[in-house]
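Notes, p. 3: input format for complexes.
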Amino acid sequence: MDLSSNMRVVVDSVKNKRGTHMSDIDLQAGKINHESEWLAVEDLKSKIQAKMDAGDMKFSNLATALEELNAALENSHTIETKIVIPTADYEKLKALGGEDDDLTCVHKAVMEFIKGGLSSVPEGKKKSIKCARCKAPIEISVDDMPAEIECPECGTVGRLKTSK
Ligand SMILES: [Zn+2]
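Output follows (164 residues plus zinc ion):
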């Protein structure tokens, strides 16, 4: 299986600076949801043009949608990358992404990572136990559970009974 695929990920970094109303925008497709219809910049422009040609000047909401979409697209960043991962990890990615196409899976993963921030990355969790003899607290790493622990206070060596 060819695991390398060219990815094109558009990060949804859209924040409406006006803050009040935010339309549904699909950055990946470059479309805005306007009155239950997904429209690209060109679609909006032609709709506005059609209204103008017909002498209908009521296109302010179309113009607003166009403005919002343009602002969102200007405020987005396209990541062009090639990701090569082991088959096992690729299978996991597909499973987590709901077996969508590669791009959708990677997009989901990227967004989850961004939302969770770096805190979502496990950074060597510590567990505190107490020395059986002197009750001094001893910090051990959960990821790398040692079989024997020596108390830094009294030097007593204890064994961990926890199973991995
Ligand atoms: Zn001790």
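The chain has four helices and nine strands.
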